[in-house]
Every structure is written in structure tokens, then in C-alpha cells.
Design a protein that fits this description.
Number of helices: 5
CATH superfamily: Gcn5-related N-acetyltransferase (GNAT)
Structural class: alpha+beta
Number of domains: 1
Distance between the termini: 25 Å
Order of helices and strands: EEHHEEEHEHEEEH
Strand order of the largest sheet: 1-2-3-4-5
Largest sheet: 5 strands, antiparallel
CATH topology: Aminopeptidase
Strand content: 25-35%
CATH architecture: 3-Layer(aba) Sandwich
CATH class: Alpha Beta
């Protein structure tokens, strides 16, 4: 089982609370945050996403943890692991993902939280590999993937099956194996 909370030097990754719903809805309604998604989410869609995240914890003992800054307990988004729900050449698989408020960008929070999630996945859940993917022009997320040691083979890039015919369909795929992660951790 995953811990209720994971702490890093500056962050707390924790299970979701009712009071997270309002700031999470604001994050999901921000067109800049959601630039590389097909659309923003309204409050109902945002609340539904929390429900799916919590169902993922129940089914797999891990998921996307709510993310807060330790110093002020401010909610800034999520980071975590999720079993992919679509079929592709690389599934079944577990992904690592994140979504942070604009105000949290540029502080290294996504990288710090992602490193903690990779540790959780590889040590506690003994995952053999973790993937991440994004729209090909999402340089910010790609940079996080690279900072945590993930690598890309352009032959793995794919059109997201939920976005057939959409301008955001083309995605890049990054991977990190447990073996590579252990080597990087030293």
C-alpha cells in the first residue's frame, strides 16, 4: 500500500481532501495550464477527475497525489502514478504525470515531486518501468521528464487514441526503467 503522504524537502504529496476541490477546479479552468489538453475542465469535470484519481488509489494502491508546499500548506496541483486506461503499443503501463498551478511553475516542484513518485513506484511497488507522455510541443513537461532521467525514442511517439484527428494528437513518449532509475540514484 502507498503511504497516505510522501514528503520531500519542500513538498507534501498526500491524498485528496474536500477543500482541494475549489483550487483544483481553478487550476483545471486555467487556459494556460491546460494549453496542451483538448479543453479546460469545469467544476463538475474537475470533481469527477478527483473521483477517478481516488478510484485509482483503491484499485492500484497508488495514484495522483495532491501536492502542497510544505512551508505554507498551499495546494499547487498533483503529481503521481496512474495505470494507463487506453490501448497502445506500449500498454499495459504505468505513467507518471503532474499538473501544477501557474504560480508554482519554475520552482522545480514538478521535478522534486516526480522524483519522489518514481521512488515510490520502483521501491514500494516494484514497477519495472514508468512512462510519461505529452503533446510533442509541451517543452515544460518534456524538460521535467528529462530532468528525472526519462529518455525518449522517437520511434515510440504516437497519436493519442483519445485525440484522433485533434491538433494535439501527436505525443512523445518517455520511459525510465527501474534499473536506470537505480543507476541514476547511485
Amino acid at each position: 500500500m502507498s503511504p497516505t503522504t510522501i514528503e520531500t524537502e519542500r513538498l507534501v504529496l498526500r491524498r485528496w481532501r474536500f477543500e482541494d476541490r475549489e483550487p483544483f477546479a481553478a487550476l483545471n479552468a486555467d487556459p494556460v495550464v491546460m494549453e496542451y489538453f483538448p479543453s479546460t475542465l469545469d467544476r463538475s469535470e474537475s470533481d469527477d477527475l478527483i473521483g477517478r484519481i481516488e478510484a485509482g488509489f483503491a484499485a492500484h494502491a497508488f495514484g495522483f497525489w495532491a501536492l502542497e508546499v510544505k512551508a505554507n500548506r498551499e495546494f499547487i496541483g498533483f503529481t503521481g502514478l496512474s495505470v494507463l486506461s487506453f490501448e497502445a503499443a506500449f500498454t499495459p503501463a504505468v505513467e507518471i504525470g503532474w499538473r501544477l498551478t501557474r504560480e508554482a511553475w519554475g520552482n522545480g516542484y514538478a521535478t522534486e515531486a516526480a522524483q519522489a513518485c518514481l521512488r515510490e513506484g520502483f521501491v514500494e511497488h516494484r514497477l519495472p518501468e514508468v512512462l510519461s507522455f505529452t503533446y510533442e510541443k509541451n517543452a515544460r513537461s518534456r524538460a521535467v521528464m528529462e530532468r528525472v532521467g526519462m529518455t525518449r525514442d522517437p520511434r515510440d511517439d504516437f497519436d493519442h487514441p483519445a485525440l484522433v484527428g485533434h491538433p494535439l494528437a501527436r505525443h512523445v513518449l518517455y520511459r525510465i526503467t527501474a534499473e536506470r532509475w537505480r543507476a541514476l540514484e547511485g
